[in-house]
Amino acid sequence: MIMAGTDKKYVETPLMKQYYQIKSVHPDAILLFRVGDFYETFGDDAIKASGILGITLTRRANGSATYVELAGFPYHAIDTYLPKLVRAGERVAICEQLEDPKLVKGLVKRGVIELVTPGIVLGDNILANKENNFIASVYFGRQTTGVAFLDISTGEFYVAEGADSYVDKLISNLQPKEVVYQRGYEDRFSGSFDFFTRRSKDLLYSRPIAPSLGYGSIDENVGALKNTGIEMVLNGTIINQNGWVWKLGMNLTHYKNKVTELPLKDMPQSGVNKLQVGRSVYDFYMKEWAGVDPDNGNPLWYMDEKDANDKLTGKRVTTSDYASANYYYVNKSSLPKVYGGFNTSLSWKGFDLSAIFAYSIGGYIYNRDITMILHNGSLEGRDWSTEILKRWTPENRYTDVPALSTTSNNWNSASTRFLQNNSYMRLKNLTLSYDLPKQWISKLALSSVQVFVQGDNLFTIHRNQGLDPEQGITGITYYRYPAMRTISGGINLSF
User: H helices within 88-210, ranges in order?
Assistant: First the structure.
């Protein structure tokens, strides 16, 4: 076995294989490896520990060509030696024997039971009584640096944001025992994948009651839901060389919803939805549009056919009477199949170009906004949509816009005609910035100067023009104006 950073050949015994396997999980910590009545350290850990603790450094050998440095102390002396290691700024992983050696044939099972770091210790024998024991977390942003300080022994917590020099001053003043920060480009890709399932019961619902009781409904804790989904996050540095840094990140959510229990077998309709066991609360329940009668230009909807005995035949027919049309589950939901966002940034020699996108795929929405302008002319003084130019006429019999009428024909009433796919992608933000070189501003007593220009909501890819696709999850538009497109710029100064 050849260990990284050295050219010497280490002993490859079952015990040492076990040690190196555990050590690989905690490469930045001194591993106290329990062997019988001793905590042993090996290799570089032994060299470091012997210097800090003042204990003897020896070699574990197997012939003249193979060896490994060794330093240890009795297990009952850990309260003496552990504080010294932590006070020296070292992370310490304590690896114990998880089995009784007397009852095991061969190699004893071992594992790390505790990871002690300078910033998270609580023992009175390690903490200094008259000073704080802060752990600091630093985040390096594109424009500013953020820092948080926490002393878990006292509960003190501070957070700040500013230029690098400002954060450096805070760290110097508070003297944290440990500082953590995000890894550099050597860990170029990261991500997470989460699956969740949640059951909810005793949901508040307005249950209908007999009007003779004086009320139309009563609020009760009834009903149950099951929610499942996945969430995925990916981040990566695609390029990091020759001054060029290109980063890319994205997130994705898939969510499903199902009703598992209701107080009534046949629930009353609520707007464009109707609750039913086995279906989502976001499923649409509407009258289905059947087009325009080419013979007379009347609007058509679907209804259940009945025979001469007023019994359902199981077939559907069309009707021009909106009141006679039936409601159906239309196998469409306001819940998107996939939604999320992605971002990217490109940096080079002080220049930074970044973009943030949002997207949604597969959800539907009832466009109540458009029904307000698609009237039939029965109300004088109302503006018309240009869609009326495509209306039915004897010369234009095959169209989806009914004939012009001076009486109400309900063609713009709620139906699947106005149920639209709400998939979209929007450029939420685009920013171009430039950080002036330090030598340009050093004489001005400034720590940083950044010039920037940014645009918000510059474009949206969306089939339904005029509609803001970022609507509520209810699946009904609420007369929202499209997101405002803005372009701005400025200068950020840090002293």
Answer: 164-174
Both structure tokens of 458: 């510059």
One-letter identity of residue 105: K
The CATH class of the 14-116 domain is alpha beta
Q: Which residues pair with 450 in a beta bridge?
A: 435, 492
pTM of the model: 0.57
- Distance, CA of 181 to CA of 319 (rounded, Å): 67
Can you tell me the distance from the alpha carbon of 125 to that of 116, in angstroms, rounded to the nearest whole number?
13
Contact 287, 416 (CB under 8 A): yes
Per-residue model confidence as pLDDT tens digits over 350-379: 899 999 999 999 999 998 888 777 765 666
Please give the biggest Cα pair distance in the chain: 107
Q: What are the extents of the domains in the chain?
A: 14-116, 135-181, 189-236+250-333, 338-380+406-494
Please give the Cα distance from 442 to 68 (Å, whole number): 52
What confidence tens digit (pLDDT) does each residue in 209-224 have? Answer: 767 777 777 777 767 8
CA geometry: angle 116, 118, 124, nearest 5 deg: 80
Residue 27: how many CA atoms within 13 Å on its side-chain side? Answer: 4
Three-state SS sequence of 244-263: EEEEEEEEEEEEEEEEEECC
Mean pLDDT of the 305-323 span: 92
In the block, tokens 């944290």 appear at 176
Burial class (CB in 10 A: 0-12, 13-18, 19+), 286: buried
pLDDT higher than 60, residue 2: no
pLDDT at 9 over 50: no
Write the single-letter amino acid at 41.
Answer: T
Residue 64 is predicted with a pLDDT of 45
The partner residues of 74 in beta bridges, in order of sequence, read 38
Q: Is 122 left (phi over 0), alpha (psi -120 to 50) or beta?
A: alpha
Comparing 195 with 321, which gets the higher pLDDT? 321
The confidence band for 129, taking pLDDT boundaries of 50, 70 and 90, is low
What count of other Cβ atoms lies within 10 Å of the Cβ of residue 67?
A: 16
Q: Report the alpha-carbon distance of residue 300 to residue 400 in Å, rounded.
A: 10
Q: Tell me what pLDDT residue 126 has.
A: 60
Q: At what angle do helices 43-53 and 78-87 cross, to 10 degrees?
A: 100
CA 227 → CA 248, 258, 266, 477, distances in Å?
30, 7, 22, 24
Average pLDDT over residues 249-257: 90
